[in-house]
Amino acid sequence: MKKSSILAAAILLIGIVIAVGSVSFLGPCVHEDGSFGACHWAGRAMLGIGVLMGLESIYALMSRDGAARSSALACMFLTALLGALTPGTLIDLCHMATMRCRAVMRPAMMILCSLAALISLIGCLTGLRKTGEKK
Amino acid sequence: MKTTMLAIKNILRKPGRTAALVMLTALLALSVFGGSVVVRSLRQGLNSLESRLGADIIVVPSSAQSKVSFQNMLLQGTTGAFYMDAENLNRVREVEGVEVAAPQIFLASLKADCCSVKIQVIGFDPETDFFVRPWIEQSYSKSLGELDVVVGSKVEANVGESIRIYDERCKVVGRLAATGTGLDTAVYCNMDTMKELLRAAEAKGVSHKVTSEDSDDQISAIYVKVKEGYDISQVNSRIQGHTRKASAVRTKSMLTDVSNSLAGISGTVTTLIAAVWILALVILLIVFAMIINERKREFAVFRLLGTSRRMLSGMILKESALCSLAGGILGVVLASVIVFPFTTLIETSLGLPYLRPPAGTILTLALTALGATVLIGSLAASIAAFRLSRVDPGTVLREGN
């Protein structure tokens, strides 16, 4: 198994955790009155980002072309950056640090997305170097 | 230098074995660093609560005392709204031995416009207050105007923004330094603002009246400072006898409860760390014994090629020190990723004051964890190296044949 495939598989796993976690154990606050706060939509955005990250990693896993795989890894890097910035920066969260969205969702998503960004960056740079060597 | 390069090459030659050693030592560093940061944060939180309370006695309505709601409000930031007759303030001030008595009024917001969380609003009298004012003065030196509020460190509102409480727009004029207690989740205002908010709450159908129709006639707590030379217990008993439908609580007894809980948690964490370390030490001893046994022939060849026992032991120790160092760094990084971003979650789960220690202390704890990990790894390897030095290389090589 190629190193880039292992890295893509790791990002697939992270994407699944982000997507599943954003609607369950890492999800935003559940409002008692049934209303939706900003954090709910931040959670929904993370679901989309997790799914997108997963699809990109599946494409990277299936791709036989090194350049295409590197491009997919570059996309994953940008998606992961977007994910890290979504809760709290791009989409507002509840205004109390003790709320679930700030105490659980935000730090967890930032850690997962930072990890995905790091992995994808390593994969992308390694892939680009190999492609350059072949040429 | 040669043995160092040889040790590095040996480490890289067996990635699986190296990874196992690194993971094991990472677990050690993670447990000792993570555990010690949590315990130190709890101690820091207790110290912060001690210094923040300042009062010798706190008088609260009997209902608040029976429900332990006041203590929960201070420690966990749960909202509380309990009231007693304001006449109790004059009664407390008349008690012999009372130096200062400062009233506070509490109000729990229904729902802030930002989220579904209730916010604890604390109104204080700037003239007599010695509890909140010194704390506020660290971040806001002017006096609070009408509908001006100062927010605790955990309320995510910036200076200049406004927060809505019972449809009243309150301007945030300052943010307080973190105390690691429930006080960080509250919003502070003067008595005039509090009366406005109480009226707004009444208009929304949230009643806070005790006996009177006038909201001026009720308070939630009285913070008492006892004069020098007076026995706090005696003053406490006198206050208890003078007040109606109120309980006087010695802050020291409240802090003792917190301290006991903290001692319990510290003990559990320390036991867990000790258990992890003993287990890891035993595993490391077995692992190194197995590694040395597996590499017996390799070391015998080194001996026959002229490598001294001392050099050979040095090489084994360097291998183990390098693996332990890598594991230690990994463990400290993992613990940092787990403990620091989830500080609020840990604090709310424990329900105790929790304040992150200063960066210098954290760095010291990280270096201690790293040093201890390298030391324990080297100790386990040195035992194995000592056993190896006593083995005759010729016998080892003949055994193989």
Describe the protein in words:
The complex is a heterodimer of chains A (135) and B (401). Chain A is mostly helical. Chain A has helices spanning 3-22, 38-62, 66-85, 100-134. In chain A, α3 packs antiparallel against α4. Chain B is of the alpha+beta class and 401 residues long. Chain B has helices at 2-13, 15-53, 62-66, 69-76, 87-94, 133-137, 191-203, 232-242, 251-294, 296-304, 309-339, 343-350, 359-389, 393-400; strands at 57-61, 84-85, 98-108, 120-124, 148-151, 162-165, 168-175, 186-190, 218-219, 221-226, 246-250. In chain B, strands 6-7-5-8-4-3-10-1-11 form a 9-stranded mixed beta sheet. In chain B, β6 and β7 form a beta hairpin. In chain B, α1 (2-13) crosses α11 and α9 (251-294) runs parallel beside α13. Chains A and B meet through α4 of A and α12 of B.
Question: What's the order of the H and E elements of chain A?
Answer: HHHH
| Distance separating the two termini of chain B | 33 Å
Give the number of helices of chain A: 4
Count every helix of chain B, treating DSSP H or I runs of 4 or more residues as helices.
14
Instruction: Sketch the topology of chain B as an H/E string, one letter per element.
Output: HHEHHEHEEHEEEEHEEHEHHHHHH
Mean pLDDT of chain A: 91
Global morphology of chain A: elongated
Q: Pair with the most extensive interface?
A: A-B, 21 and 23 residues
